[in-house]
Amino acid sequence: MSIWQTESWQNMLVTSWQSEEYFVIEQQDTASFLLTERREFKWGIWKQVFVEKRSVSAWEFALFIQGFEGEKSERLEQSLVQLCKEENCLFVQIETLHYSWIWESVLWDTTSPFKKGYYKKFMPPYTALIDLTQSEDEILAAMKSKGRYNIRLAEKKGVVVEQVEKIPYNAKKFYELMQETTSRDDFAGNTLSYYETFLSTVEASQLFFAYFEWKVIAAGIFVMHDDVATYYYGASGNAHRNLMAPYLLQWTALCHAKKRGMKTYDLLGVAGPDERDSSLAGVTDFKMKLSPQKTHVSDSSIYINKKIKYQVIMFLRRLRK
């Protein structure tokens, strides 16, 4: 079960106003039942699928499933279509997560009400992965030489990385660094309230700081769930950038995850092999110094409930670009 398919993640989305509410489709071999966060029904052994309800364009709502692992069953698809109609939503979008893509050929069933496509991507299709079952020496050897060099440079120059408590004071420190990062690299960040909620609500989240001469110069939020450690948010100040603190930050978090027995380190999102002018171009260069290759981990399918309105909305979106 991925971190996106957990109740703590759904609670974070609702608390931070990212989603309106969430639903749970609970399935057994011979039955499927729908629950909301306000209703409970327990019986037997279940497989849960968490469904987010989010506001989209033109005063419409839509349903999103992130980080879905496994094969979509006909029963699940029927349950999602029914839920979409009951909630009068514009569409349902499913984003898969598979670190092994062996079942890709069965994903797009032509008889399915879900078709390949998406309204908005939350899960990056490609990522950079590191196999934590290897030794530390093997992991370092697989990195690009510049990645290894930058890790050692940060250590040599006196950068120290530590895991810190997820308290409001430290969340504010992270936010202040993130403001410097977003201003420098020209992208939108989140609010302080969001980061506080993320750290306090997502139980598997962890916060690491990189210090130089007792000052925080870089920070990272990581999620360590089941056997996967995910690099979720990173920030660095404008001062001391020559010390390469973000590289040692990643290495320290990676080693921490390895010691906990995790098997995969996910750097969460890089530009695809054929993408040009990607918004992920800058971070891709950084991440690929640490991981040897890009891996296809996610794809999307969508069921459109209100076809005409959806087409109008998409047409207007294209006009605005």
Describe this structure in words.
The chain has helices spanning 7-15, 74-86, 136-142, 145-156, 168-185, 192-201, 245-259, 281-288, 307-320; strands at 21-27, 32-36, 47-55, 61-68, 91-96, 115-116, 126-131, 160-164, 205-212, 215-225, 228-236, 264-266, 294-296, 300-304. With 321 residues, the chain is an alpha+beta fold. The chain has two domains: 3-123 and 298-320, Aminopeptidase (3-Layer(aba) Sandwich), CATH 3.40.630; 126-296, Aminopeptidase, CATH 3.40.630. The strands form two sheets. Strands 2-1-3-4-5-14-6 form a seven-stranded mixed beta sheet, sandwiched between helices. Helix 4 packs across helix 7. Residues 29-33, 36-44 and 102-107 have low confidence and may be disordered.
Summary, kept brief:
This protein is of the alpha+beta class.
Outline the secondary-structure elements.
Elements: H1 7-15, E1 21-27, E2 32-36, E3 47-55, E4 61-68, H2 74-86, E5 91-96, E6 115-116, E7 126-131, H3 136-142, H4 145-156, E8 160-164, H5 168-185, H6 192-201, E9 205-212, E10 215-225, E11 228-236, H7 245-259, E12 264-266, H8 281-288, E13 294-296, E14 300-304, H9 307-320
Parallel strand pairs: 4-5, 11-12
Antiparallel strand pairs: 1-2, 1-3, 3-4, 5-14, 6-14, 7-12, 7-13, 8-9, 9-10, 10-11
Helix pairs in contact: 4-7, 5-6
